[in-house]
Amino acid sequence: MKKALIALLALLILGGGGGAAYYFLVMKKDPISPEKNKAPVAETAIKSESKLDPVMTLKPEAEQEPKDFYVADRKLKVLNEPKKDGLITDYLYKGKKVTVLETKGNWVRISDYIVLREGEPQTAKWVSMSGLSSNEVVITEKENKEILDSYLVKSDDLKAHREMFRNTVAKLISEGDCAPSDFDELGGWVKSLKYRNRDVYFIYCDGLSLENKIYLDVNTGKTFTE
């Protein structure tokens, strides 16, 4: 069989069939399959992915760097949201240092967000930026007296003990035993009926319980609790 094929090829070459023999021997020897024309699967996939540009690049919003300010107003409202008609939750007084955590228009947030009740929106403490100063606020001696006197307007026997009341308020606030809001809310010192034989007056600080009651003996200038 092999000899017959060799003889056939020789006849084709001798008979002018060189082209046919070349095709048969060379071209047919290593035919290119359709699969070899295709690009590798992995390479095709990489090219496809490189063309998928994002529609929008989302970047995390930069957090505001906390910054210290000072209350410039004598009495600054603290609201539960950055709105004029927000609920007043507290007051800040002149000279108080606060840390601004966020700014929204003319409003600044000075506390962390909290949720008072489950299901309710989160709230925080907000104040008007117009009531703050970036520089430390200096209160003159005259203005300090005026501020202290404003806390005493409803005190019993005010004319007789104004100086003692004023000095005691200043001391209690500076030592952190009381806040300006304690005096601002109650309006001053109340004559004690418990100590009838002594000139003793009282004020509530940081609450209205008996343990929050601070007494002042105006004859000695000493304060005490029960």
Give the arrangement of secondary structure elements.
Layout: H1 2-14, H2 18-27, H3 41-50, E1 67-71, E2 75-79, E3 88-93, E4 97-100, E5 102-104, E6 107-109, E7 126-128, E8 132-133, H4 141-150, H5 158-174, H6 180-186, E9 190-191, E10 200-204, E11 213-217, E12 222-224
Helix pairs in contact: 1-2
Structural commentary:
By secondary structure, this protein is of the alpha+beta class. The protein folds into three domains: 2-50, no CATH class; 67-133, SH3 type barrels (Roll); 141-224, no CATH class. The chain is 30% helix and 20% strand. It contains six helices and twelve strands. The strands form four sheets. It has a four-stranded antiparallel sheet with strand order 9-10-11-12, with helices on one face. It has a three-stranded antiparallel sheet with strand order 4-1-8, with no helix packed on it. A three-stranded antiparallel sheet has the order 5-6-7, with no helix packed on it. It is elongated. Mean pLDDT is 81; it is low at 2-62.
Could you name the key traits of this structure?
three-stranded antiparallel sheet, alpha+beta, disordered N terminus, 6 helices, 12 strands, SH3 type barrels, 226 residues, elongated
